[in-house]
Amino acid sequence: MIVLSALGAASLAAGCGDDGDGSGGDVTTGIAPSTQLADVTTEQLASACPRLKAGFDRVFQADKLIRAVCTLSGVATTETTAECVTYRDQGIQQASMAGSEEMEGLGDIEFTCDDAAENDHVECTGTVGQLETCFNDTLDRVEAMFNQFSCDDAATLDEEAFDDFGGMLGEPPASCEAVGCPGESPFAPDDSETGP
Hints:
The chain is mainly alpha-helical and about 200 residues long. The chain is about 45% helix and about 0% strand. It is built from 6 helices and no strands. The two termini are about 15 Å apart. Residues about 1-25 and about 185-195 have low confidence and may be disordered.
């Protein structure tokens, strides 16, 4: 679903935020919500895509991802709040350095409008409004999951508590079922659990 599988990969690649600002799910496409996705024109799609990208980029900012991943890693691998804070801050500093290997996985997390003219949406059965709801719910879900832990949890959680974290991120919100897009569409149901 969208690029949530890439997000899981980035978490592993970064190897290492609590405080979110809740700026995710308020994206609109500028197209009438009742419009069938199959009826969206190439021009409308090209105009809507930058709006979706702007919302995506607010949630997937590199500094926010680095802080979140370093916090989660600190919570999983340390035993006290103080140790976690130190671990997190060191991870953020390392990941923020130019050319840092920890930054490499974050490059996979992107939303581009390069393919906005393609007609993948014509096979979708839902409406623009349903797609907007799915998109915003997905952004909200990512933010909530990254912000649900802080270094105060280090004393009570260990690595096992995060075993299924990537799977939870990859699971689309229930609202996405209504969008009804097939196959390779970024809004298609996530089939990652049934194959590689």
